[in-house]
Every structure is written in C-alpha cells, then in structure tokens.
Predict the structure of DUF3107 domain-containing protein.
Amino acid sequence: MDIRIGIANSPREISFESSQTAAEVESLVAKALDSDAKFVKLTDDKGKIYLVPTASLSYVEVGSEESRRIGFVA
C-alpha cells in the first residue's frame, strides 16, 4: 500500500510503502483527527514508525493495493 502524507508549511511530503490496508489507515487517521490525539502513528513495510502531528496534516493519500507491473504491456 502506497501512502503519501502532506505536511502544512513543508514543501516535501512523506511517502512510504505500508502493509496496512486502506481501511486500517483511514480509521487510524480518522480516530486521531476526531479525538484529542497529538500524533498519527503509521508503520511501513520495513518496520519504521512514522509519528505525524495531527495539527499539521494537510492530506493523506492512500494508494491502491495492487502491485506495480514491470515491463511492457502488449
């Protein structure tokens, strides 16, 4: 799963691959924004943990679960 996170007042975005499903990511972000949580905690495929402050979230883009194709398609 491809995840891209936009941060307010930052020209770059956070981009990583995660083994979490789109529904899991959506529920984690929604719960953090609805509650008084200070951070959203997401993990990538390699086990790295990303703590993103909820106050500076601009957007969260969750990609498709389909793997990328390699080579030419006829």
User: Anything to note?
Assistant: The first helix runs from residue 22 to 34. Helices lie at 22-34. The CA atoms of residues 5 and 14 lie 5 Å apart.
